[in-house]
Amino acid sequence: KGELHLQALVDTTVYEFDKTNLYTFFKSHEKFEKLRFIQAEDAYLQMVRRLKKFQCMELKERYLEFVNENPELSNLVPQRHIASYLGVTPQSLSRLKNDL
User: What pLDDT is recorded for position 82?
Assistant: First the structure.
């Protein structure tokens, strides 16, 4: 139905909301409407930070930051997914990890 495909790598609970009903809820609950804007702004800023990392940081720096910020994920998530997140091939990530 949607344009986005998500695949959970660990047990996950997902909630789906009808857009029209959700907007109606936001209009009738002002505090949640404010929360929606705060979350949208946060998502935007996260996207900008990630884009800056791709533009300004070498792969080694991005990988080390990823491991430091998400130590549990580096053991749970297959290397191909980590490589995709970092914007490289699994082979490039494997070479980097061997060099480290």
Answer: 93
Give the pair of three-digit tokens for residue 9: 């790598």
Complete DSSP assignment for 36-99: HHHHHHHHHHHHHHHHHHHHHS-HHHHHHHHHHH-TTHHHHS-HHHHHHHHTS-HHHHHHHHHH
Between CA 41 and CA 79 the distance in angstroms is: 30
d(CA 17, CA 64): 36
Distance (Å, whole) CA 26 – CA 36 = 8
65, 56 in Cβ contact below 8 A?
A: no
pLDDT along the chain (100 residues), means of 10: 75 88 89 90 94 91 93 88 93 95
Structure tokens at 68: 């430091």
The amino acid sitting at 89 is: T
| Residue carrying structure tokens 């080390």 | 64
